[in-house]
Structures are given as C-alpha cells and as structure tokens.
Amino acid sequence: MSKTEQTAPGAPPGASAVVTGQGAGRVAFAAFVGTALEWYDYFLFGTAAALVFNRLYFTTLNPTAATLAAFATFGVGFAARPIGALIFGWLGDRMGRRPALLITVVMIGVATGLIGLLPSYATIGVAAPLLLVFLRLLQGIAVGGEWGGAVTLAVEHAPPDKRGRYAALPQVGSPVGTLLSSGAFSLVLLLPSASFDSWGWRLPFLLAFPLLGIAVYIRRKVEESPLFDEMMKQDERAKVPALDVFRQAWGRLLVAMASATLGVGGFYLLTTFMISYGADTLGMSRSLMVNGTLVAAVVQIAVILVMGRVAERLGPGRVTVWGGLLTAVLAFPVFWMVETRNPVVVVVAMAVGIGVLSIAYAVSGALLAELFPARLRYSGVALAYNLAGALTGFLPFLAAAMLGAVDGASWPVVLLLMGLALITALGGFLGERMRVKDSVVGN
Q1: Domain Major facilitator superfamily (MFS) profile spans what residues (predicted)?
Q2: How far apart are CA 61 and CA 140, in angstroms?
Q3: Residue 5: what are its φ and ψ, rounded to 5°?
C-alpha cells in the first residue's frame, strides 16, 4: 500500500472482489451514456433559465428581478440534490448500485419532459412558476443520486491501476450533455423570436421522453458492482450509510466537498452565468454565447480523457491541485477576453476557462470514490458532490446580483471563481493523502 493509500473508517475486512478490465470498460461506457442523457436533461434547465424562463414564467417582474428569479429556480435543483443523495445513497449502499441508477434516470427524464409541456405564466398565472420549481426539485433529487452511483459503479468494476480512465468516462457525460443541450437550443434559436418563445424552446425538453427510453434500456444492461455483491455475501452493508458517513468519515466528506467545488460551482459560472452576462450585460447575441459552450464542451471532453490517464500516474489529488491553481491564475484573463466582445476571442475564452476547470473535474470521480470505503461509497460520494452543488448552485444568482451592485463590473465574479479554485486545490492536496484501497483482485 502506498503512502497515499490507507484504510478508511468503516472499511470492511471481507474477501477480495474480482474485477476485469473488459467488464470495467463495458460498465463505464454504459455509465457514460446514461450520465450524458441525465446531464442533457439537467443542463437544459440552466440554458433555459438564462434565455427563456425569466421572460415567460416571471413576467410580472422587471428584467433584472426576473433574471434573478430564474437563476434562483435554477439553484433550487442544487438545494434538492443532497436529499437525492440521502435517498439514493441509502438505496445504492443497501440494495445495490444498479436499481438506484434505474430509478434516477426515470425520474429526471419524466420531470424534464413535463417542463416542455408546462404552460407559461400568461396561460395559467402563478401556477406556472410554482410548477416549474416543483419539476426542478424532482430533477435535483434525481441527479442527487445519479452521478455518485455512476462513478461508484465505474470505479468498482475497474482494476485499481486503471480507475482513472474508467472514472473519467462518466465525467465525459457532462460535456456530452452540454453538447446535446446547447446544440438543441442552438437549433431552436434559429427560429423566429415569436416561434421560439411560443413553442420552439419546448422541443429540447420534449426530446427527453424518447431519450428516456434509450437510457432505461442502457441502464438495465449494467451489471451490479462486484464489491457490492461481495458485501452482500459477507453482510457488511451499513444500516444507515449516510449516518455512518457523518459519524465515521466527516473529515473525508469535507475534503471531498472541497475537491468537487470548482467542477460544480465554477462550471455554472462559466456556462449558465456567462451566457446571461454576455447576452444581457455585454449585449452579445444569445446564439454566440450558447455556441461558445459547444466549443468549450468539445475541449472539455479531450481534457477529461487525457487527465483520467494522467491521474493513474500522478494521483487524482495532485491533478486536482494543478487544475485548481491553473483556474485561479487564468480567471481574470478569461473574463477580460469575453469583455472584448470579439466573437472569436469570446469563444476561445470560454473554451480556455472551461478547459482548465475540467482538469480538476476530470479526476473528481476517481478522487471522491477513493476517499470512502465501499460500504459507504455511494452515500459518501453522492453527499460530497451534491452538498458542494447545494452550496454553489446559487452562484449564478449571486453573480448576477453582484453585477447589479457594481454596475456590471465583472471583478467580484472573477474573485468568486478564484476562491472556488483555491478551495478545490486544497481539497485535492488533502484528498491525495487520504485515499483508501479496496480489497479487489484482477482477473
């Protein structure tokens, strides 16, 4: 065992589970496809919050207040995610990783499709924003159990020396989800404004229904974790996993939350907030800003795949440190480039900003999974990631409020991004020294 690997509180002494590279690749790919579809559903809401909901569901407010209300609704989903982490963490650690992932994909697909059918404020009045908030809550609860389960399943099927690459595949689901959601919105933005507002924006949401069928088909083929099967045989499951996480591994939970902060909160500052900032404050076209996220997503995919391999050599914690520090250094230049209003420079800035941020995000799954023992892993990973999300999900709202307070100057938002980056760097530094080792053998 290396000096960076140790036995965590609550780790079971059971027999070794058998893992194979072939099985790991199949499961990781299935986790990636399902996660991509889930993030597609989730990211649609962020784009719509910046472009649509402020005008169609909060029409009684002035433009600034309507934007704040739309971003607040966006943040509600993050506040609900820890609830999903508790529910699906219990299910995943007690009943199995696979059934939890099947339920989450159905929940988020149905909630997203129903948003596409939701009447506007002009049609049903105050019930419209209330129903929008309710559906966002359902999305948040479902996503609260999704990512942690996908990462846990991918890691637990992988040989220990290849966990970085397989844990990175579910991470690729995020930029692919961005490509799908932003691409869908880019297409409907080609419609005349009246058509877009009337029905065009609904099409990407309604697409969630057929995608749900694909996701369920894929998730049903995912095999259960060999580590969980071994725990079932040895009867080593935690009775109340979340409680054990808070009692036995609270320090690990805090470190995991810190290491995940940039990948969650920073990402939404450079996508959801940046779209609104470029379109509403700087006066650039909505299509330009959305297309900028498309280019950035392609860069993000490449960064994630490369950094997953790098993490196997250097360790995911060290990669997280470098990703956090580099993001902090480039935060001001990225915003300065966007403020030039030059279309090419703006797109490059968004690609650079999200690209460096993705260095830490790429290895977040591998690092978080190895901070918790198998019997607490689903709950620990889900709670850490989603508590970080709950704390940072309102950042687009906070950033928009900051702009109003300083007459549109971006420097407070840049300092906010730098703070997130440094917190993540600290989490990576500590996390690398707290990684645990599972009892597994290759085959």
Answers
A1: 27-436
A2: 25
A3: -120, 140
For residue 177, the one-letter residue type is: G
Tokens 């699906």 belong to: 88
Are 405 and 301 in contact by the 8 Å Cβ rule? The answer is no
Locate 94 and state its tokens. Answer: 């007690």
pLDDT tens across 50-101, in order? Answer: 778 777 877 666 676 777 777 777 777 778 889 999 999 999 898 888 899 8
What does the alpha-carbon distance between residue 309 and residue 321 come to, in Å, rounded to a whole number?
16
- Tell me the C-alpha distance between 349 and 292, whole Å: 9
Buried (b) or exposed (e) across 165-201, using 16+ Cβ within 10 A? bbbbbbbbbbbbbbbbbbbbbbebbeeeeeebeeebb
Distances in Å between the Cα of 39 and the Cα atoms of 46, 108, 208, 411, 440 are 11, 9, 11, 30, 31
DSSP 8-state secondary structure symbol assigned to residue 60: T
State the pTM of this model.
0.83
Instruction: Compute the C-alpha angle 398/391/393, nearest 5°.
Output: 55
Q: What share of the chain is helix, strand, coil (3-state, %, to 5)?
A: 80, 0, 15
244: tokens are 């054990």
